[in-house]
Write a structure and sequence with these properties.
Length: about 350
């Protein structure tokens, strides 16, 4: 039975990427050596790292604009710390839209003052705050573009006179934005780009070197830039799979092409959530709905067993909501085909007819 993988992360990957990465584990570049056992300093892997970094900048339209792309480790959770370590001298500004921005704020407070410009915490993060002011004297402004747990997504970003930092872990490469508005972007690979184990950091070099503290080498962005993302042994396999995924996206037509498909998927599912009387969405403002993670629930808990059984029979996996929210969450990352969303909608319609 074909599986339809709606997992929030680690998430679905393109089948062609899975096939190529599986082959590389056994025989990488016809070397009769596994990708898992070659030196990260070998010519073959250095080419992988260089290509992955170059593709990331190319997709974002940031080549030759003063940006560097890094593939680091520790997930977005380590970036919560590294951002503040490298950028926060006196004061920072944070928009709090969910669990992960909440955690980022906690780390930043270790290094200086944090101004929370707005939050939706009192409403269980079911909307994106608007009309907030970003202090001009802050060292940087931090936001989270998409909130996987609650199913909200920023559809616009403020104009700021200070560097803007964005955690794009769950919607990187999914839609067109003016990425030059951001001075630093970071994203855990496992949401939309590759397997768990590496983190993409895209950083404008001119924002570095402005804090007075000494920064440990492993946490210093400048060190990683100078060493071309090879200061320590990189996560070889996750970087390789991320490179393959970025190549797949390029062959597809890039971000503009995948955005059209992502819009179709989101429209199809949200139309059914709104139409079907058995279901209700979590996000109060439709304009704040995430196109990556649709969160919803049954209006009648007595239908849960029936719905779950239909999901299993249809081969749908990974639809359970986050433990802190409950309900259901359909994660529709780049590699999820439109067909899978249609199967989910068909199941929702079938449960309605049988109710």
């Amino acid at each position: 039975m074909k599986k339809h993988n709606f997992s929030a992360g680690p998430c679905i990957l393109p089948q062609s990427v899975m096939q190529k990465s599986a082959e590389a584990v056994l025989n990488f570049n016809n070397s009769n050596l596994s990708l898992l056992e070659i030196s990260h300093r070998s010519k073959d892997f250095v080419e992988v790292m260089d290509n992955a970094r170059s593709l990331a900048l190319e997709h974002l339209g940031l080549q030759n604009k003063g940006y560097q792309a890094l593939f680091l480790q520790g997930g977005a959770s380590l970036e919560f710390l590294m951002v503040a370590y490298n950028l926060l001298e006196k004061k920072s500004a944070y928009l709090n839209t969910g669990t992960w921005s909440d955690k980022a704020i906690k780390e930043a407070k270790l290094f200086g003052e944090v101004v929370e410009v707005a939050t939706s915490k009192s409403e269980n993060f079911n909307f994106i705050p608007k009309n907030y002011n970003v202090p001009k004297d802050a060292d940087y402004f931090h936001c989270t573009s998409n909130n996987t747990i609650f199913g909200t997504q920023m559809q616009s970003f403020p104009e700021t006179e200070i560097p803007m930092v964005c955690d794009m872990s769950s919607d990187i490469f999914s839609r067109q934005l003016d990425f030059s508005k951001f001075s630093l972007i970071y994203a855990g690979a496992q949401k939309n780009m590759g397997p768990a184990g590496t983190t993409l950091v895209v950083i404008k070099e001119d924002i570095l070197g402005k804090v007075s503290r000494s920064i440990p080498s492993m946490l210093n962005y400048k060190v990683h830039i100078d060493k071309e993302s090879m200061f320590n042994t990189p996560a070889v396999f996750p970087v390789y799979v991320s490179m393959l995924t970025l190549e797949w996206l390029k062959d597809l037509g890039g971000i503009s092409a995948i955005e059209k498909i992502n819009n179709q998927k989101a429209e199809l599912l949200y139309n059914e959530i709104d139409r079907n009387p058995l279901f209700e969405g979590f996000v109060s403002n439709k304009e704040d709905r995430s196109k990556m993670n649709a969160t919803f629930n049954l209006r009648n808990d007595e239908l849960k067993a029936t719905f779950d059984d239909h999901l299993k029979q249809a081969g749908i996996a990974g639809l359970n909501g986050h433990r802190s929210v409950g309900g259901y969450r359909a994660s529709m990352y780049n590699a999820l085909p439109l067909e899978s969303v249609q199967v989910l909608v068909d199941v929702m319609e079938a449960v309605e007819k049988g109710a």
